[in-house]
Amino acid sequence: MDDDNKRQHIAAKQIIISGDSSRIVTSFSPPLVFPEGCHYEMALARVETYYSFPNITIDNNKLRVSFDGGKTWKVIEIPVGCYEVYAINNELQRLIKEAGGEESMITISPNKNTLKCILKIKDKNYAVDFTIEQCIRSVLGFNAIKYDKTGRFEGQHIVNIMDVNSILVKCDAIGSSTLNGVPEPVLYSFFPNVPPGRKIVEVAHNLIYLPITTSSISSLSLWVTDQGGKEIDLRGEKLTLTLLIRSC
C-alpha cells in the first residue's frame, strides 16, 4: 500500500471522551501517531453535561438578618447551587423562618426594567446586613450597607446573577487560538441554551478545525473554563466530549 493510501486510511477519526469533572485526561494505547509530511487538525463536535455549575458558592452566599431592630443578628447561608433571583428569595425566606423570623417580612425580587434587585423590609424590627464577608450582595448588586428600616430599596448595581458568560472547552494538543489576545488552547466556545438543572447538548453545526501541534498523542487533556480562565465546577456531573480529527 503506497503512502497516499495509508494517509487516506487514517484521514479521519472520532474520539469520545467522558469524565465526572471539568478536567478530563485520557491516555491512548497505542498512542495516536500522525505520519510525517501530513498535517492534522481537530474540532469539537459535541458537548454533553448538565447545567449544574453554581452561581451561589461559599464565596458569595451569606447575609445577616435581625428580627429585633438590630440588637441581635443571625447569619443566613444560602446553600451552594444555581439560582435565579426568585429562587434566592424563596430560599432566603425559608431560612428566615427556620431562624425564628417571619419569612414574609423580607423579600427580594428582580426589577426587570432596571435589571436591578429590589429589597423590601415590611416590619420595623427587621433588618438586613450586606456588610459581612462572602456576602451575597455581589450577586444581587447591593453595596456593603445595612438596611434597618422599613421600605423598598433598590440595589446600586445591575444584578450579577451569573459570572459565567461563556464556556470554553480547551485542549492541550491544539494551537492557533487566542483569548483576549493571548495564546490559549481554546477548541470551542458556547453558552447553554437551557435553564439551570437541565441537560446540555451542544452540537457544533459549523465545525472549526484547529491544527494539532504534536506528531503523536499518548495523553490528551481537555478542560472547561469560563471566559476568564477559571475552571467551571460541574459538581460531579458527567462531561462527555466528542472530537473529530482529520488530515489537512
Strand content: 35-45%
Which structural class matches the secondary elements?
mainly beta
The rough form would be described as: elongated
Radius of gyration, taken over Cα atoms and rounded to an integer in Å: 24 Å
| Mean pLDDT across every amino acid position | 93
Number of strands: 18
Query: Are there runs of 5+ residues with pLDDT below 50, and where?
Result: 1-10
Helix content: 10-25%
Tell me the series of helices and strands, N- to C-terminal. Answer: HEEEEEHEEEHEEEEEEEEEE
Largest sheet: 5 strands, antiparallel
The tally of helices reads 3
Please give the CATH class of the largest domain. Mainly Beta
Termini gap: 20 Å
**The CATH topology of the largest domain:** Jelly Rolls
Q: Could you say how many structural domains there are in total?
A: 2
Q: Which CATH architecture of the largest domain is right? A: Sandwich
